[in-house]
Amino acid sequence: MWKEIGDRERGILRPKSFTTRIKSNRIRTLQISNHKDIVSPHRASINSLQVDLTEGRYLLSGAADASAAVYDVQRATDYEGGGLIAKHKCLFVVDKQHEHGHKYAISSAIWYPVDTGLFITGSHDHHINVWDTNTTQVVMNFKMPGKVYRTAMSSLATTHMLIAAGTEDVQVRLCDIASGAFSHTLSGHRDGVMTVEWSTSSEWVLVTGGCDGAIRFWDIRRAGCFLVLDQSHSQLGRRPTIPEHSATNKALTSKSLSSGQNLNAKPRAQQRKLANGNGTKQSPVGRMPAKGSLRQRLHPGMLSSLDRATAHYGAVTGLKATEDGMYLLSAGSDSRLRLWDVESGCNTLVNFETVRLQAGKPIQLATSQDSALVFVPCMTAVKAFDVWSGNTSQTFRGHYEYVNSCWFSSQEQELYTGGNDKQILVWSPPRMKDLLRIGITGVIDICS
Amino acid sequence: MDKTSEEASSKGKKRQRDQQPTDPQTNQPHHQIFSLEDNLSFTDTLVALRMMRAQFPRIDKVSIQPFILRSQLYSSVKDRTQVDRELESLRREKVVRIFKLNTGQDDHAIMFLDDYLNQMENVVKRLEEKEGDQVFKWFRTHVIDSKLEPSIEHQELYTLLSLGGMVKDGHISLLINAGLLTRQLIDPNMYWFAIPNIGSVLKGLSQGRKEVLSFLNRRRYKEMMLASMEKKCLRFSPLDMRFHLRDLIGSGHLKTVQTSTGLLVRVSKD
């Protein structure tokens, strides 16, 4: 590290590369924190964790005993161990005793992306509550037709304030905070929707993963989804290769380019599949006459509901988009983690060495700041995988039971994980100050 | 390195007589001389596939062409992403075919296309006398050639088969009865491609896996030296120990640890 500082001083290293180097060095030495501890007031498993997006200071956790708590992760409430260990107690808790609190488990607790004045909780009691943080009162309440599995708000949105809710019901509902009503529903999934994420590149694009194993991309300004990820469509590498047999495929590729991302017509979907096959033999079948009559009865935007492609062999339990919005990571109950190229809609075939992943509950994945590492809760451990090669970079073992969610704070380079053992653990790089202090006291002992 | 001389040095001459009948590789003599430790890692996916195909155990009761499980490839080639990508390009070039098996989570069997066609021929020959044998010809020329994925939709199957002639629902039942297609449990309109006549081998596969894992779990420290493991004979599985060990190591249930006396096989905790 001293060499980097010296280089920066002399101007050999640019400021941006200096910060990324220091940050990635720190991330590589993550271990269970010996100077920070979060005291969790929850009495049941922790289902959701999120640090606010504006300051990176307040951690919100939602647990299965219908309680949600907020902690300040930058300033400790008190110190222990002679000032060496910082204890972070919760700033407040809202639980079943609250007059408008939830009755059953909270499955998802998120901050309002613009500021920390509001937070939104979704629970298994079919309600989504919008809370005012300063007064801890429920400002708005939405009733859903089934248990709420995930709620999400877009951090890029400037024109809308919609909460996307994934529930047991097959339809994804969008709730509007400004008006207090549902704005519209998105149908297409054939089973409950376990994960919902907004795209990190567009405020209008929503990605949902369902219990039927499908991952669908929705543009909320239109009906129907525009892309369904299929695990059999794959590309060999980060980006698709330029087709070599451009002469034979010219007609096909030009047609697929003109139709763009719109997979809302079955014959076009066929041609798109062939174009992605990169030079495989042309199938003589391009049309399906029997389906013609069926197609006429459906709105063209709703044709995507006929597409039964699956992204996983089980339910999709976790989704995470990379910061640049070009790749999507998905975790499924078939214990596979897949990396998708959003632009081409293909599976990049990166193999992450996951042996088993939790199947019944949605899990929360986290990526490091330049999306080089992904932190995945694998049963009782959290594993960090390299996103491009799939190798396991680190394993964090500390929880006594299954881990449900993890959140990486890129400001502090700290990882917060919560699991069924009711604990929130902090994983941080070792502090230089501690190493120096121990060194000094060691010297004094020897002298005296 | 001679296997017999290795045994002679470690255990004494008496062991040789016990080992000969359990060794199934009677038709590939030059592969016998390598112990499992030596051929646990390969450098390339195609090389690994060919070598494992050559080492496929011979089963006396059922005539089945060699197939390789995906987890076996993962245990032998270091980089899993490279394996996935190379398999994908081999599949697209129609060198191999991939089938999804129903024995547990995400099991895939890889078979060379020629082997699969041979297997199909053997099965179809026995059903030749029935009148619907046209279906098998249509299946082979139109469906297998153009549909490379492990599953197919009902509508697509119908249209591809109709390229050969008039298709009736009875024809599709014939294909299912022959074992070439199976219905998907989650979706009534989709079929999986399947390897015909493989049922008893798959049963042996899942029972063999359970047997190997329970054998290791019953031991005090849940581990055993690889060299002594490979000599054990499995009671419930027609496939040999090497097949099962590769599969379990690749799927993560077992892990190998290098020790000063050789490789050690241990049950892995998640």
UniProtKB/TrEMBL annotation, chain A:
Q: Which residues form a coiled coil?
A: none
Supply the SUPFAM superfamilies for this chain.
WD40 repeat-like
Instruction: Enumerate composition-biased segments (Polar residues).
Output: 246-264
InterPro entries with a match to the protein in the record: Rad28/ERCC8/Ckn1/ATCSA-1, WD40/YVTN_repeat-like_dom_sf, WD40_PAC1, WD40_repeat_CS, WD40_repeat_dom_sf, WD40_rpt
User: Where is the region Disordered?
Assistant: 237-296
Keywords in alphabetical order, please: DNA damage, DNA repair, Repeat, WD repeat
Q: What are its GO cellular component terms?
A: Cul4A-RING E3 ubiquitin ligase complex; nucleotide-excision repair complex
In the UniProt record, does the keyword rRNA-binding occur? Answer: no
What are its GO biological-process terms? proteasome-mediated ubiquitin-dependent protein catabolic process; protein polyubiquitination; transcription-coupled nucleotide-excision repair
Q: Where are the WD repeats?
A: 99-141, 186-221, 309-350, 396-428
Mind telling me what this protein is named?
Answer: Transducin/WD40 repeat-like superfamily protein
| Organism name | Quercus rubra (Northern red oak)
Automatic annotation (TrEMBL), chain B:
- Positions of the UniProt region annotated as Disordered: 1-32
- Family per UniProt? Belongs to the STK19 family.
Q: Which Pfam families match?
A: Stk19
Q: Where is the composition biased (Basic and acidic residues)?
A: 1-10
Native organism taxonomy: Eukaryota, Viridiplantae, Streptophyta, Embryophyta, Tracheophyta
Which stretches does UniProt call biased (Low complexity)?
Answer: 19-32
PANTHER family in alphabetical order: SERINE/THREONINE-PROTEIN KINASE 19, SERINE_THREONINE-PROTEIN KINASE 19
The name under which this protein is listed is: Serine/threonine-protein kinase 19
Q: Which InterPro entries match?
A: STK19-like
